């Protein structure tokens, strides 16, 4: 686990998600590509190679994963394949090689819809809300696979993001960037996911709003939902990361704990501005 100001992260309140018992974390392997197939990370895209349609491979033997009770962060330059890696894990890319595993089960062949039913929540980088619908309608849309009473979950999301309660009858498109991202995360949480994937949740927001969003993301992780996220704000994201991946040209360039990556001279020089 990382050290620093977020050390009080526990996994005490299991109300938001569906998380089962937390296992102990798998030790990180430097440059790690080989995770054991049993007792391994909760969600993993392992040795993924593939691209869009019949186009060239974008991912090359790429591995990204998140353990129970942890936050894993993917960083890297623009066009490195971070979003492509997330889409591959969510089933939106045909992999030519590699596997995706959820809680030990091989889900490589499942559709995104089936992955949602298995407990995966995904907030994509773009078009992640319905702008013409109200905040509340967005949250209701998020719960589309549920047949039980969704109101308690909606209340939990309004407790997590109080501004959304105030604006629940407003069109989501009228909200600020940071508030829209809260809607997007809230929408994904409406399925009561077992794991949450976020692609650049702080894109285009001010540093203050970024800090607030990170605090809320940590709060979600604390409820027992592992989080796999892509972040442009690499330094700040690695501060809160249990595990970090630096991707370059679709490949794993560096892998380690957040603290290891922050301390690595090569990572600092090339990706963190020195
Ligand atoms: N739908 C698509 N069809 C074909 N090629 C794509 C598609 N989406 C992305 N690519 C290509 O895949 C490569 C990786 O893009 P990707 O969006 O995964 O990078 P990224 O690391 O998420 O970048 P950014 O930091 O800008 O979000 C780029 O060369 C991009 O042009
Ligand atoms: Mg991207």
Question: Which residue ranges are poorly predicted, with pLDDT under 50 across at least 5 consecutive positions?
Answer: 1-14, 19-38
Distance between the termini: 24 Å
CATH architecture: 3-Layer(aba) Sandwich
Radius of gyration: 18 Å
How would you classify the helix and strand content by structural class?
A: alpha/beta
Query: Helix segment count?
Result: 10
State the strand order across the main sheet. Answer: 6-7-8-3-9-10
Keywords: Amino-acid transport, ATP-binding, Nucleotide-binding, Transport
Domain ABC transporter: 43-274
Protein name: High-affinity branched-chain amino acid transport ATP-binding protein LivF
GO molecular function, one term: ATP binding
SSE diagram, text form:
Layout: E1 43-51, E2 57-66, E3 71-75, H1 82-90, E4 94-102, E5 105-106, H2 112-117, E6 120-123, H3 135-142, H4 151-160, H5 162-166, H6 177-189, E7 195-199, H7 207-222, E8 227-230, H8 234-239, E9 243-248, E10 251-256, H9 258-263, H10 265-271
Parallel strand pairs: 3-8, 3-9, 6-7, 7-8
Antiparallel strand pairs: 1-2, 1-4, 4-5, 9-10
Helix pairs in contact: 3-6
The structure holds adenosine-5'-triphosphate (ATP) and magnesium ion (MG).
Adenosine-5'-triphosphate binds near residues 55, 76, 79, 84 and 125.
What's this, in brief?
The chain is α/β, with parallel strands linked by helices and 274 residues long. It contains ten helices and ten strands.
């Amino acid at each position: 686990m990382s050290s620093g100001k977020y050390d009080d992260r526990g996994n005490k309140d299991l109300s938001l998600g569906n998380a089962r018992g937390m296992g102990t974390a798998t030790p990180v392997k430097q440059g790690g590509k080989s995770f054991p197939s049993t007792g391994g990370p909760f969600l993993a895209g392992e040795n993924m190679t593939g691209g869009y349609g019949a186009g060239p491979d974008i991912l090359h033997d790429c591995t990204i994963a998140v353990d129970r009770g942890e936050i894993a962060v993917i960083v890297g330059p623009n066009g490195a394949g971070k979003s492509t890696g997330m889409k591959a894990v969510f089933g939106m890319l045909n992999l030519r090689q590699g596997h995706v595993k959820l809680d030990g089960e091989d889900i490589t062949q499942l559709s995104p819809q089936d992955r949602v039913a298995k407990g995966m929540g995904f907030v994509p980088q773009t078009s992640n809300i319905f702008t013409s619908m109200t905040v509340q309608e967005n949250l209701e849309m998020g719960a589309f696979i549920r047949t039980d009473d969704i109101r308690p979950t909606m209340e939990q999301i309004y407790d997590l993001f109080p501004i959304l309660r105030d604006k629940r009858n407003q069109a989501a498109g009228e909200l600020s960037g940071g508030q829209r991202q809260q809607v997007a995360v809230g929408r994904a949480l409406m399925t009561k996911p077992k794991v949450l994937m976020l692609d650049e949740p702080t894109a285009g927001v001010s540093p203050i709003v970024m800090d607030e969003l990170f605090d809320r993301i940590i709060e979600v992780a604390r409820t027992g939902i592992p989080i796999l996220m892509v972040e442009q704000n690499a330094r700040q994201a690695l501060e809160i990361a249990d595990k970090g991946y630096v991707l370059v040209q679709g490949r794993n360039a560096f892998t380690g704990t957040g603290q290891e990556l922050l301390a690595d001279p090569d990572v600092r020089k090339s990706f963190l501005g020195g």
